[in-house]
Amino acid sequence: MSEQIKIRKAVKEDWEKIYQLYNSLSDEDLYLRFFHLYRITEEDAKRIASNEDHVTFLAEVDGKVVGEASLHKDGEFSLVVDRNYRALGIGTLLVKTLIEEAKKSGLSAIKFYTLPENIPMIKIGRKLGFRLRFYEDEVYGEMKLMEKEVNINLATSSSP
């Protein structure tokens, strides 16, 4: 890929680019993202860009937003990548960015829910080391972030 991928934190003014990204998605893409067919509104795009109860990162190629990933305060995240820019590592790059953000924020874990047919998201989860649990109607992925520190503290506090 000759274009440069830029990952950056969203700002409020990005809402139109986020809206355009979501409007470029197919019905199937939207179903996989929201677990049902849902077209976002301008207000939804403004909320995504606001970073009020979450943090959103964007992937840009030549100034065009081609990916969006949001991390919520409970550690749950969502991800979407433009169909024309998939299989280029953009989703993986965005999730790695969210993992680093979660660590900086002091979260103990990061997690996602997806549908069993969302193979690209499942592949990202496997590649990055998420513990995956498969259920009939969803897949749950979780990565513990603070486990080592907790284990060290437990070991030292239980010593006589």
UniProtKB/TrEMBL annotation:
This is GCN5-related N-acetyltransferase. GO terms for molecular function: acyltransferase activity, transferring groups other than amino-acyl groups. Residues 5-151 form the N-acetyltransferase domain. The keyword ATP-binding does not apply. Keywords: Transferase. It holds the Pfam family Acetyltransf_1. PROSITE patterns: GNAT. InterPro entries: Acyl_CoA_acyltransferase, GNAT_dom, MshD_Acetyltransferase. It comes from Saccharolobus islandicus (strain REY15A) (Sulfolobus islandicus).
